[in-house]
């Protein structure tokens, strides 16, 4: 069973007409639809696993755990080459829902613009030239000075899958400040991560992903994998992300540990769902 820590009452009702059977049907339809765009495997620059299967899996998580609705205004930070966008084309209402994807890798954005937007006009993609030592080393924008190119309170649902797993702690805080600014009151953030608690660090069951032997870096909250470049996989002390979300004005509704750490779970990375209280700041 997935280990979940519920910190307040989370979204529990699926959108109208979407019960669990319908969600399963939708995920299967996305997985089997050979007409949906799929990039050449050599062009996928981030993320393990089958493109279609991972996208279908996360569509289910977005609906069930995150509460995204067909009429949601979605922002996908670090959208890559459309792994999350493609399945969402089959869920978001063409007239009422919308999707904006941003990424520092121009090649992924160009593919999405060519293969997704011409058919789904409510899906748009922007290249944001953020500097990153692995993905965009010559970028012009310092991550610590990030300003998302959107108005305040513009989005109902924000996705950050496999984003903070590649950021230092100071940049995580900068991103979350911007998330709070552009998130609508009552909106939700869906974020995946690696939380290095005692179980993950000591690996008592010897079932942790062998590729992720995290070691602490200096006195800060970050953990890196010695065999990899520093930002290839970043973990954080348990409690750091909880605190960063709280400081940004976001209330955690769900904190769920993934099976990378060797525990039973229906998802690989750890994940948070956090909400912007309707009272605002």
Describe this structure in words.
It is a single chain. By secondary structure, the protein is α/β, with parallel strands linked by helices. Helix content is 25%, strand content 22%. The chain is built from seven helices and twelve strands. The chain has helices at residues 20-32, 51-66, 85-88, 106-115, 169-182, 198-202, 240-247; strands spanning 3-6, 73-77, 98-103, 123-127, 155-160, 183-193, 195-196, 215-216, 222-224, 234-237, 250-257, 270-276. Strands 1-11-12-6-5-2-3-4 form an eight-stranded mixed beta sheet, with helices on both faces. Strand 5, helix 5 and strand 6 (183-193) form a beta-alpha-beta unit. Helix 1 (20-32) runs antiparallel to helix 2 (51-66). The longest helix is centred in the N-terminal third of the chain and has 16 residues, at 51-66. It is globular and about 50 Å long.
Keywords:
25% helix, 281 residues, 7 helices, 12 strands, eight-stranded mixed sheet
List the helices and strands and how they pair.
Layout: E1 3-6, H1 20-32, H2 51-66, E2 73-77, H3 85-88, E3 98-103, H4 106-115, E4 123-127, E5 155-160, H5 169-182, E6 183-193, E7 195-196, H6 198-202, E8 215-216, E9 222-224, E10 234-237, H7 240-247, E11 250-257, E12 270-276
Parallel strand pairs: 2-3, 2-5, 3-4, 5-6, 7-10
Antiparallel strand pairs: 1-11, 6-12, 8-9, 9-10, 11-12
Helix pairs in contact: 1-2
Low-confidence residue ranges: 5-12
Mean pLDDT level = 91
Q: In one word, what is the shape?
A: globular
Number of strands: 12
Biggest sheet statistics: 8 strands, mixed
Total of DSSP H or I helical runs spanning 4+ residues: 7
